[in-house]
Amino acid sequence: MQQSYTAEQIRQAERIALARTPEGALMARAARAVADAVLSRMPSPIPGRAAVLLVGPGNNGGDALYAGALLLGRGMQVTAILADPDRAHLPGMTLLRRRGGRAIAAGSPDVPRLIGRADAIVDGLVGIGARPPLRAPMDDLVRRATDSPAWRIAVDLPSGIDPDDGRSPGAAFDADITVTMGGLKTGLLLSDLAGDVRVATIGMDPASLSDASGRSIDCDANIVTDDDVAALMPQPGAQDDKFSLGVTGVLAGSVRYPGAALLAVGGAVRMRPGLVRYAGPQALAVVQRWPEAVVGADPASAGRVQAWVAGPGLGTDGAALAPLRDVLDADVPALVDADGLTLLAAAPSLLARRTRRGAVTVLTPHAGEFARLFPDLDPADRPASVRAAAARSGAIVLLKGHRTVLADPAGRTMINTSGSPWLATAGSGDVLAGMAGSLLATGLDPLTAVALAAHIHGRAGERAAAAGRAGASALLDLLR
Questions:
Q1: Residue 90 contacts by C-beta under 8 Å, 6 or more apart in sequence?
Q2: 34 contacts 27 by C-beta, under 8 angstroms
Q3: Along the chain (480 residues), what's the average pLDDT of each consecutive run of 10 residues?
Q4: CB–CB of 305/248 below 8 Å?
Q5: What's the rounded Cα separation, in Å, for the pair 61 and 39?
Q6: Which of 334, 332, 296, 341 is nearest to 436 (CA)?
Q7: Rounded to whole angstroms, how far apart are CA atoms 169 and 140?
Q8: Which of 104, 149, 406, 470 has the most crowded CB, counting CB atoms within 10 A?
Q9: 333 — alpha (psi -120 to 50), left (phi > 0) or beta?
């Protein structure tokens, strides 16, 4: 799996690397990575192309200045715009000027013209030590850069976004490429302003460093990759049968929402478990669409299962509460989604009783459902709030969104980076619930099982978008 890190974890890696690396080596490597990113976007001929560097007072500004010196060596015209001329990185400024570059203050009347005519703009205003919002004149510079037709390249992270949660309360640099140093920052995953994120380890990869006492650097979150899916998805063996491959129970659907049952069962079937049992009022419709499913009227008569999915389209009246209670009283993993979450918010003792028994529970809210379950937590602060919700509830919590965030009660955190805006459609979550419940039934580590389902679901959404296909049913076709 890929890892992401907080600003403090990256600073820890930087301290270790600096103690073991010749002076200036890390900055030289960073500058090379930034210059290469700029050149990768420049059409031929490169000589004569114009690059503008937005330079702040820290090391990011130094990286930008050294990158500018390299671009000068390729024949580009380079101008540095200094947010604070008295605090600009002196060695970088010296080299830039020696090679023919120009430097002006942010207040110069030439700034609008230079930014407007640039072929590339490099953002080196602030680094991971700063927190938004940006102050003047940096805020004005990033606004002008955003309005420019130039390619925009951020050094380490776009100025104006928080490195840990990705929020940008104010002006922020909208990057086409972010060249991030050492390791991936969690905030880059959660922001839509980072563009194409390229990790330049430059000798300070946190995953490969340890301090003098041998302690390694923890990561903030893990990210499932396609390779993880290939390695971790259960495969049947010669001695397996339908029970050893996992039996998933699905409590979903109602007279008002019959389709939810079909979508949730379909999501479960597409993950290839040994058996899917459906319990609910849409038994006839389910077996007509999914003849491999075994159907029953309620959880009590469904038979043995190894994990439950409960809630999609279930309804929120008293009639829905009793079967949900039956599911939650079972001593197998249970995933609760949609209407099931609304019922839990109104009857929190159901979850509390299950948590006291130590049973595995997964909650899969969108932002509105999250707010009903955890009204004092801010869903916009996604990693911190999801971790807090998981610790408080004793459940694995998956918060859906542009970047789905998951955490378990121990604080392990995962971020899903696959997906498409096309997934914001009715029934998409029902499919995901069935998929995740099916993988829970296989006996995989519960957090890993749910994260795998989210990644596969996101990839199906991407394929649907590429094919111009809309609707949750298209996801089921693409999961074949």
A1: none
A2: no
A3: 96 93 94 98 96 97 99 98 97 98 98 98 96 97 97 98 96 98 97 97 92 86 97 88 91 96 98 96 96 94 95 94 96 98 96 95 97 93 96 98 96 97 93 98 98 97 89 88
A4: yes
A5: 19
A6: 334
A7: 14
A8: 406
A9: beta
Strands 413-416 and 404-407: antiparallel
Q: CA distances (Å), 283 to each of 16, 21, 264, 297, 340, in order?
A: 61, 66, 13, 7, 19
**In 10 A of CB 366, how many CB atoms?**
18
The rounded Cα 307 to chain-centroid distance in angstroms is 26
What is the enclosing helix (H) or strand (E) of 163? none
* Residues paired with 362 in a beta bridge: 335, 396
Other residues' Cβ atoms within 10 Å of the Cβ of residue 291: 8
Q: Please provide the CATH number assigned to the domain covering 226-478.
A: 3.40.1190.20
Cα–Cα dist 69/100, whole Å: 8
Length of the chain: 480
Which class would CATH give 2-221?
A: alpha beta
**Taking a C-beta distance cutoff of 8 angstroms, is the pair 274, 246 a contact?**
yes
Find all residues with CB under 8 Å of 291, minimum gap 6, and list them.
Answer: none
Say if residue 470 is exposed, middle or buried (CB neighbours under 10 Å; 0-12, 13-18, 19+): exposed
Q: Which residues, in sequence order, are CB contacts of 356 under 8 Å at separation 6+? A: none
Q: Where are the alpha helices (DSSP H) in 330-380?
A: 339-346, 349-357, 367-373
- Entry pTM: 0.94
Nearest to 83 by CA among 149, 145, 21: 145
User: How many other CB atoms are there within 10 angstroms of residue 84's CB atom?
Assistant: 16
